[in-house]
Design goal:
Blueprint (H helix, E strand, L loop, with lengths): L1 H17 L37 H10 L2 H5 L22 H19 L3 H10 L8 H13 L7 H12 L13 H9 L23 H25 L4 H7 L1 H13 L5 H31 L4 H5 L10 H19 L2 H23 L6 H4 L2 H4 L1 H11 L2 H13 L1
Helix pairs in contact: 2-5, 4-5, 4-9, 4-12, 5-8, 5-9, 6-15, 7-8, 9-12, 9-14, 10-11, 11-12, 15-18, 15-19
This protein binds magnesium ion.
Amino acid sequence: MARNSFTVRYNQTEEMNDMPAHTHLPAVLPAAIAVADAGALALRVHTEPQHAYRTPFARDSARILHARAFRRLAGKTQVFTRLPSDQVSDHIRSRLTHTLEVAQISRTVAQALGLNAALAEALALTHDIGHPPFGHAGEKALDHALKAHGLSFDHNLHALRIVTWFEQRYAGFRGLNLTLGVREGIIKHSRDYSSATHPELAGYFLDQRPPLEAQLIDLTDEIAYLTADLEDGLDSGILNLSQVRDGVELFRRFLSQAQAEYAAAAPRLLANEALRQILNALVTDLLSETSARVARSGAATLEQVRHAPMRLAALSPAMEEARAQAKHFLYANFYNAPAMQEAHEHAGEVIAGLFAYFMEDPGRLPADHQFHIATEGPARIVTDYLAGMTDSYVEQCWAHSRAG
Ligand code: MG
């Protein structure tokens, strides 16, 4: 019986493989472009024996997945947590669920292109680990507080501090002792740093492009949150269907297709179909455009990707325009919507208030944070402490600071 059902499934798969493809499969990139599991990028600061059956980058993914900072992503706002009715919704994305969505997309893209999927997954899992509580409003408030001390807040650099220092799980070293490839990707996935302004990052090939596995993450992040934020915006009632249809060209295109195909379906399901197709179209475009750019550049090795005049992972110009248009819509109607204003102001007040509270008496910080004030100064250490907090913990501290 079991054997028969297996046979049926197997045959169905065969049939699907024989069907004419709706989209062309992307060209798999030359093998030497992928980051190798052995070599310089797989090295760690503290030498460890190789694992019998896990690659170095798969081990890094596991180390991140088991880290405390990773678990705290569950308690951090992605865009918002409270509905306009002031109720907390359990369906809205947190930084954790967003991160898992980015990991899923990144793994798919890396696999389809023949890149190192384990490295792409590790980078996706860490890409938001340096974000403070309260989403971008929290990040802005923290950066603002630091500016008064001649410093700034950068979530990529903060992520590097977390994985190289704050996480303490291992008896032999501080931090997670991640591979060079993952540490390089953490800082370079979304921007380039110069060695003039960041001499401390000199070991991370600052004059070179990052590998494609890292270049992809900025785009898979954009793809994940663009579609997810439209869904969360609609679910929360902050956005409505006709507004999104009229305001987002990509959504309009795929919604009409869904309406034509499922005339009787509920509007909510049609919206989901449209979002599903938008995600698929963005990922497919990223695959084909990246393959095309690599082919045009003539790059056949990682070294050549590193020395290409520009990053090679990209959306096509037409899709990039559609993406930018949708993002512009989200900024105007969702991220900066009047319904969000109160939450943004609250975030600013809490972060600025707590920053001042700990700066006034750094003795209020936990002992292991105080220890580093002598070398790094109080402003950076207070920031480290605040940035690590979840939304609920920062609220507790805020209430405590005001009660005292
Ligand atoms: Mg992200």
